[in-house]
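New to this. Please check this fold:
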Amino acid sequence: MDSAAATPALPALPAPAPYVAPFLIGTVVFAIFFGVLSLQVFVFVQTPSPGLVPGPARPRGVVVLIWLLNALNLFSAAWSSYLFMVTYFGNLERLFTAAIPWSVVSIIVCGALSNCFVQSWFAWSIWTHYGRHPAVGALLAGGILLTLSFILALAGKAATLREFSALHAVDWLLYTGSALDFVLNLALSGATALCLARTRRSPLYRWDYLVTAPVVYMSHAGLFCLAEAFLVIVVRVLRPDDFIYFGVFIPYSTMYANALVGFLNSGALADAAAPAKPYALRAMPGRAHVLSGFVAAEGDVDADARATPEPLAVRVETVVEKEKRMTGLL
């Protein structure tokens, strides 16, 4: 009995759930959003002109590249989940003492590159919509490159660490990169939401607009991604000793990519680029007529009716169909 009491007790390892489960849950959520992204990319590529102006506003190559980066990100997340749950079999001692696998570094790199392309396209849209001011363009470009630099530095430093427990040494890179990403997303989301608010005003769906507008803004302007970036910082601060923040970070890039492709499919760029005629029914060459403002002036309606052979009822029906498409009712 005395010898048993004198034997030192082995330190108990923590439960594997906060370390292994976040990768699995984050991968499953990532796969769901990736399926939505694949559908949106298919619609974007197959549709000749989903409400967008021709030329550089049709970045098929960039959208496909973003999809490929997210596909590689999903493969890396699935590989990490398989490694931790099958190869290591939930052995935390082996997990803590082993080197950080390439798949975790790939998640960080692919997510950073995908977010960089998405943020660059949002920044380009904002810059062209608000007058192409050089100072605004330089500020947005500098913020995107600075954020990308910190995230890639985090990935490079993580690749050189001998074990997972040494990640605390690079927390300053994680916090700085995530904070810059949050501030940049806040600026881009606010400007994009303002752009959507200016182009989506219509007299046809006043009450539906109160319900659908927040959903559209949160999905197309990247407000969901803004909350995601903030949540990564909060979870890392509150739970620094487990991998829950990894589970929050994994689906981040595909959520942001969905926001961009949804924004492109909505046709907001063409509406923003078109010359506005306040409170009048305007005709746009090669496009359906759009009702701008809340009440159309009687003289402008008569002038526009003489300019086109389409009856007013047909044009109103076209506006209804366009509004349903933009609000997701079709």
User: Anything to note?
Assistant: Residues 1-11, 50-57, 272-308 have pLDDT under 50 and may be disordered. The longest strand covers residues 280-282. Strands lie at 280-282, 290-292.
